[in-house]
Amino acid sequence: MDPNTKIIHYDRNHRLFQQRRELLRWAKEHESLSELKSKVITWEVKETATILQIPVVYHVHYHIRSIVGIDENENPIYGNHHICEISIPPTYPLQPCKIYFITDVWHPNVKADGKFKGKSAATPPISGAAMTCSNWCCASERSSSTKITMPNIPLLSRKTPGWASGSPNSPNPREL
Protein backbone atom coordinates (compact mmCIF):
# COMPACT_ATOMS: atom_id res chain seq x y z
CA MET A 1 0.00 0.00 0.00
CA ASP A 2 1.30 3.43 -0.92
CA PRO A 3 1.94 5.31 2.36
CA ASN A 4 0.96 8.55 0.66
CA THR A 5 -2.65 7.43 0.25
CA LYS A 6 -3.33 6.81 3.94
CA ILE A 7 -3.50 9.49 6.62
CA ILE A 8 -1.90 8.17 9.82
CA HIS A 9 -3.37 8.81 13.28
CA TYR A 10 -2.14 7.62 16.68
CA ASP A 11 -4.13 7.09 19.86
CA ARG A 12 -2.69 9.82 22.09
CA ASN A 13 -4.12 8.03 25.16
CA HIS A 14 -1.96 4.94 24.65
CA ARG A 15 0.01 4.10 27.81
CA LEU A 16 3.33 4.26 25.92
CA PHE A 17 2.77 7.96 25.18
CA GLN A 18 2.24 8.54 28.91
CA GLN A 19 5.50 6.74 29.75
CA ARG A 20 7.63 8.23 26.97
CA ARG A 21 6.43 11.73 26.14
CA GLU A 22 9.05 12.22 23.39
CA LEU A 23 7.18 9.64 21.31
CA LEU A 24 4.30 12.09 20.95
CA ARG A 25 6.52 14.32 18.80
CA TRP A 26 7.66 11.36 16.70
CA ALA A 27 4.04 10.30 16.16
CA LYS A 28 3.05 13.87 15.30
CA GLU A 29 5.85 13.99 12.70
CA HIS A 30 4.62 10.75 11.14
CA GLU A 31 1.07 12.08 10.99
CA SER A 32 2.31 15.32 9.42
CA LEU A 33 4.30 13.46 6.76
CA SER A 34 1.31 11.25 5.97
CA GLU A 35 -0.65 14.41 5.13
CA LEU A 36 1.96 15.56 2.57
CA LYS A 37 0.41 15.40 -0.89
CA SER A 38 2.70 15.62 -3.89
CA LYS A 39 2.95 14.18 -7.37
CA VAL A 40 6.75 14.19 -7.18
CA ILE A 41 7.45 13.23 -3.55
CA THR A 42 6.72 9.81 -2.05
CA TRP A 43 8.03 8.27 1.14
CA GLU A 44 8.45 4.94 2.86
CA VAL A 45 9.18 3.85 6.41
CA LYS A 46 12.50 1.99 6.67
CA GLU A 47 12.75 1.49 10.44
CA THR A 48 10.32 1.72 13.34
CA ALA A 49 10.54 1.77 17.12
CA THR A 50 8.27 0.71 19.99
CA ILE A 51 5.19 -1.50 19.94
CA LEU A 52 3.36 1.34 18.18
CA GLN A 53 5.73 1.00 15.21
CA ILE A 54 6.52 4.73 15.17
CA PRO A 55 8.93 5.43 12.29
CA VAL A 56 12.47 6.54 13.11
CA VAL A 57 13.96 6.23 9.60
CA TYR A 58 12.26 7.36 6.41
CA HIS A 59 13.28 7.16 2.77
CA VAL A 60 11.84 10.08 0.85
CA HIS A 61 11.72 9.63 -2.93
CA TYR A 62 11.83 12.60 -5.28
CA HIS A 63 10.74 12.00 -8.87
CA ILE A 64 12.26 15.17 -10.29
CA ARG A 65 14.58 15.60 -13.28
CA SER A 66 17.70 17.15 -11.83
CA ILE A 67 21.41 17.42 -12.44
CA VAL A 68 23.37 14.79 -10.50
CA GLY A 69 26.87 15.51 -11.82
CA ILE A 70 28.96 16.26 -14.88
CA ASP A 71 30.51 13.98 -17.47
CA GLU A 72 34.10 14.08 -18.73
CA ASN A 73 33.12 16.81 -21.24
CA GLU A 74 31.63 18.95 -18.45
CA ASN A 75 28.08 18.35 -19.66
CA PRO A 76 25.33 17.81 -17.11
CA ILE A 77 24.27 14.30 -16.13
CA TYR A 78 20.61 14.05 -15.17
CA GLY A 79 18.75 11.79 -12.80
CA ASN A 80 15.00 11.38 -12.38
CA HIS A 81 14.77 9.59 -9.03
CA HIS A 82 16.51 10.83 -5.90
CA ILE A 83 16.33 9.23 -2.46
CA CYS A 84 16.95 10.99 0.84
CA GLU A 85 17.14 9.22 4.19
CA ILE A 86 15.80 11.10 7.20
CA SER A 87 16.62 9.57 10.60
CA ILE A 88 15.13 10.69 13.89
CA PRO A 89 17.71 10.58 16.71
CA PRO A 90 16.60 9.46 20.20
CA THR A 91 16.97 13.03 21.50
CA TYR A 92 14.79 14.59 18.78
CA PRO A 93 13.73 17.46 18.72
CA LEU A 94 16.65 18.63 20.89
CA GLN A 95 18.96 17.17 18.25
CA PRO A 96 18.00 17.69 14.58
CA CYS A 97 17.17 14.86 12.20
CA LYS A 98 20.00 13.32 10.24
CA ILE A 99 19.62 13.91 6.52
CA TYR A 100 21.53 11.78 4.04
CA PHE A 101 21.14 11.48 0.27
CA ILE A 102 21.40 7.89 -0.90
CA THR A 103 21.47 8.93 -4.56
CA ASP A 104 23.61 11.62 -6.20
CA VAL A 105 22.46 15.22 -5.89
CA TRP A 106 24.15 18.32 -7.30
CA HIS A 107 23.88 20.97 -4.60
CA PRO A 108 26.42 23.06 -2.65
CA ASN A 109 24.92 22.00 0.70
CA VAL A 110 25.26 18.28 0.01
CA LYS A 111 28.69 16.63 0.27
CA ALA A 112 29.87 14.02 -2.22
CA ASP A 113 29.06 11.26 0.31
CA GLY A 114 25.43 12.45 0.53
CA LYS A 115 25.67 14.14 3.91
CA PHE A 116 24.38 17.64 4.58
CA LYS A 117 27.09 20.32 4.95
CA GLY A 118 26.90 22.61 7.94
CA LYS A 119 24.71 22.63 11.01
CA SER A 120 20.98 23.02 11.30
CA ALA A 121 20.11 25.87 13.65
CA ALA A 122 16.49 24.79 13.95
CA THR A 123 14.81 21.44 13.97
CA PRO A 124 12.32 21.39 11.11
CA PRO A 125 9.42 18.97 11.13
CA ILE A 126 10.00 15.81 9.10
CA SER A 127 7.65 17.04 6.37
CA GLY A 128 9.63 20.31 6.31
CA ALA A 129 12.89 18.40 5.99
CA ALA A 130 11.35 16.42 3.13
CA MET A 131 10.46 19.64 1.32
CA THR A 132 13.92 21.12 1.99
CA CYS A 133 15.51 18.03 0.47
CA SER A 134 13.30 18.40 -2.61
CA ASN A 135 14.76 21.88 -3.07
CA TRP A 136 18.25 20.43 -2.78
CA CYS A 137 17.43 17.83 -5.42
CA CYS A 138 16.40 20.35 -8.01
CA ALA A 139 18.34 23.49 -7.13
CA SER A 140 19.99 23.23 -10.53
CA GLU A 141 16.75 23.60 -12.46
CA ARG A 142 13.04 24.11 -12.00
CA SER A 143 10.26 22.05 -13.48
CA SER A 144 6.93 23.85 -13.80
CA SER A 145 5.09 20.62 -13.00
CA THR A 146 6.70 20.14 -9.58
CA LYS A 147 4.99 23.07 -7.81
CA ILE A 148 7.98 23.31 -5.49
CA THR A 149 9.57 26.68 -4.72
CA MET A 150 13.17 26.66 -5.83
CA PRO A 151 15.96 28.47 -4.01
CA ASN A 152 18.12 30.79 -6.09
CA ILE A 153 21.40 29.08 -5.24
CA PRO A 154 24.34 29.00 -7.67
CA LEU A 155 25.84 25.66 -8.59
CA LEU A 156 29.19 25.21 -6.89
CA SER A 157 31.84 22.52 -6.96
CA ARG A 158 35.58 22.18 -6.93
CA LYS A 159 35.43 22.24 -10.73
CA THR A 160 32.47 24.26 -11.96
CA PRO A 161 31.83 23.61 -15.66
CA GLY A 162 31.45 26.53 -18.07
CA TRP A 163 27.69 26.06 -18.47
CA ALA A 164 27.26 26.56 -14.70
CA SER A 165 29.68 29.44 -14.23
CA GLY A 166 27.13 32.16 -14.88
CA SER A 167 29.20 33.81 -17.60
CA PRO A 168 27.23 35.69 -20.30
CA ASN A 169 28.12 33.03 -22.88
CA SER A 170 26.98 30.14 -20.68
CA PRO A 171 23.41 28.84 -20.75
CA ASN A 172 21.45 29.22 -17.55
CA PRO A 173 21.47 25.74 -15.91
CA ARG A 174 17.92 26.40 -14.68
CA GLU A 175 16.87 26.50 -18.35
CA LEU A 176 18.68 23.31 -19.46
Describe this structure in words.
This protein has 176 residues and is α+β, with helices and mostly antiparallel strands. It has a single domain, classed as Ubiquitin Conjugating Enzyme, CATH 3.10.110.10. It is 17% helix and 21% strand. The protein contains 3 helices and 6 strands; from the N terminus they run H-H-E-E-E-E-E-E-H. Strands 1-2-5-6 form a 4-stranded antiparallel sheet, with helices on one face. Strands 3-4 form a two-stranded antiparallel ribbon. The longest helix is centred in the N-terminal third of the chain and has 13 residues. The two termini are 36 Å apart. The C terminus is likely disordered.
